[in-house]
């Protein structure tokens, strides 16, 4: 930006060689970092699963005995196949009976019962495919009127929450995530009329939260509203 002391007839100075190299280096980091970290994370996870699964597989049937090299990812494939088979059995009558019998045994063990129930609730919340997943992003006024926060609508409040809340209308349970970690946040109950649903997807809203407002769902120019782009 020019100041009153700048001479309009003097052209702006071009950045030096070091500045251009630094700019190119930072651009390269932005391109390489997501790809490199993703590959590193997948490679590390595969190695960890191989280290846990392969010692449980009989030595005579491990692929290394036939091909002569240790292929990373074999343990992951075995784990996926084993998990699919267990899930298929668990859906049947025999599987459900065995799971019910096992859970009744666990309920009789004081310490094991607490650990098992906690892990089960986390697993069902994260992995279960059900209607409890977030489907709509919204705006709510939080932590006070006039300040807006992005939230995710989970469901309509029921039971004791509705009976004790001092409101005449429906209550909507909204998860308000924190930045930059959207897995932590606050569960809040708002009157239905105070929840503004957004057109953006849950994934786009999550990107907006993680990036602290730097990545908008409307593309390259965050200063242009979605409605203005649609009108164009």
Write up this protein.
The protein has 232 residues and is of the alpha+beta class. It has a domain of 96 residues: SH3 type barrels (Roll), CATH 2.30.30. Helix content is 47%, strand content 13%. The chain has eight helices and five strands, in the order H-H-H-H-H-E-E-H-E-E-E-H-H. Strands 4-3-2-1-5 form a five-stranded antiparallel sheet, covered by helices on one side. Helix 1 crosses helix 3. The protein starts with 16 loop residues before the first helix and ends with a helix.
Summary, kept brief:
This protein is an alpha+beta fold and 232 residues long.
Structural class, by secondary structure, is alpha+beta
Report the β-strand fraction as a percent range: 5-15%
Cα-to-Cα separation, first versus last residue: 29 Å
Radius of gyration: 27 Å
Q: Flag low-confidence runs.
A: none
CATH class bucket of the domain at 136-231: Mainly Beta
Oligomeric state, counting identical vs distinct chains:
single chain
Compressed to H and E, one letter per element, the order equals: HHHHHEEHEEEHH
List descriptors.
single chain, 232 residues, alpha+beta, SH3 type barrels, 8 helices, 5 strands, 13% strand
Topology:
Blueprint: H1 17-53, H2 64-67, H3 74-90, H4 93-106, H5 110-127, E1 136-141, E2 148-156, H6 160-164, E3 171-177, E4 185-191, E5 196-197, H7 202-210, H8 226-231
Antiparallel strand pairs: 1-2, 1-5, 2-3, 3-4
């Amino acid at each position: 930006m020019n100041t009153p002391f700048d001479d309009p007839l003097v052209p702006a100075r071009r950045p030096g060689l070091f500045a251009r190299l630094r700019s190119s280096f930072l651009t390269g980091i932005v391109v390489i970092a997501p790809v490199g970290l993703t590959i590193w994370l997948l490679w590390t996870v595969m190695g960890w699963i191989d280290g846990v699964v392969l010692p449980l597989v009989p030595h005579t049937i491990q692929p290394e005995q036939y091909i002569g090299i240790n292929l990373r990812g074999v343990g992951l494939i075995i784990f996926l196949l084993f998990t699919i088979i267990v899930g298929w059995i668990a859906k049947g009558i025999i599987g459900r009976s065995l799971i019910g019998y096992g859970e009744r045994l666990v309920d009789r063990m004081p310490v094991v019962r607490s650990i098992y129930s906690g892990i089960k609730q986390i697993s069902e919340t994260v992995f279960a495919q059900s209607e409890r997943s977030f489907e709509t992003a919204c705006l709510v006024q939080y932590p006070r009127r006039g300040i807006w926060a992005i939230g995710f609508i989970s469901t309509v409040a029921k039971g004791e929450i509705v009976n004790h809340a001092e409101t005449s209308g429906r209550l909507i349970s909204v998860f308000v995530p924190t930045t930059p970690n959207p897995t932590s946040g606050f569960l809040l109950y708002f009157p239905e009329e105070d929840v503004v649903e957004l057109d953006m997807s849950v994934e786009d809203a999550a990107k907006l939260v993680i990036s602290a407002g730097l990545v908008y769902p409307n593309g390259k120019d965050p200063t242009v509203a979605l409605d203005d782009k649609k009108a164009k």
